[in-house]
Sequence to fold (323 residues):
Amino acid sequence: MAFSKGSWVAIAFLLFAPLVSAANGDHKLSGRYYDKTCPNVQRVVQTVMANTVARDPSVAPALLRLFFHDCFVNGCDASILLDSTPFFESEKDAVPNTSVRGYEVIDEIKSVLEHDCPATVSCSDIIALASRDAVGMLGGPSWNMPLGRKDSRRADKDGAEKLPSPHDNFAALVSMFRDRGLDARDMTALSGAHTVGMANCVNYRDRVNGDADIDTSFARTRRQTCPAGRDIDGGMAPFDEQTPMRFDNAYYKDLIARRGLLTSDQALYGSGGSQDGLVEMYSRNGARFAKDFAKAMVKMGNISPSKETPVEVRLNCKMINWS
Fold:
């Protein structure tokens, strides 16, 4: 039996219409959300992640960063994955996101899951699981990640331009995290993600070329890759020189030694009181940091898009359904 192009569109709409929600509904996330509909989801994510990280370990911190940059713009809704359309600009083009990568890994996981469990697993849940597995593959903690997120049908480039800046001071950071339901302890634990990965010269140039609150030998070393007054393309430097690809508590030891790479890193230590005590505790007790980090990742992962946000389970993470 032959069908016209219009007939196929109509049939597809009828088959997949339940995937689209007019707006974000109130529902609780659950670690067992896919137990019946896609029981292999965690195994699929872990398998693709293990193969990818074995080829390129730097993908692991990149995917952890991807999760942060998604959740901090209207909640964890995979809006960062959307390409531009005539109706909205992509968050990928926002200045804070120009160096974000790992999109192709999410696409690969999605492709496998669409084969195994069509139209079931959201792109936002894939990001959440991939970031969790990334931490574990770098030697960090694991946790039971609640699932059941939906994908936004729109992006917010303007919102993405307002992501936390590497130049922010402590007060600005506290305010930005508080606006998303995260307290100073959550912020301090989540900032420990900078125990892995790299930063571009443009993000640390001011600190190493003019900040008084910095170890002089550290600043001298970093100025070799990022001198003042020169437009260095790249100039990548590790957040943690000692164990740049191991998820540990070295980040906090660096802060105490005034060797935080970004202004926003060092802002977490030096003001005195309970905040300094928290950094000192994490520097001594890696297990406490790991526990608090896992707890804060779950809390951040619970940030929902606004109730007015139209959501769905995207069939392709780069575009909304029936665009």
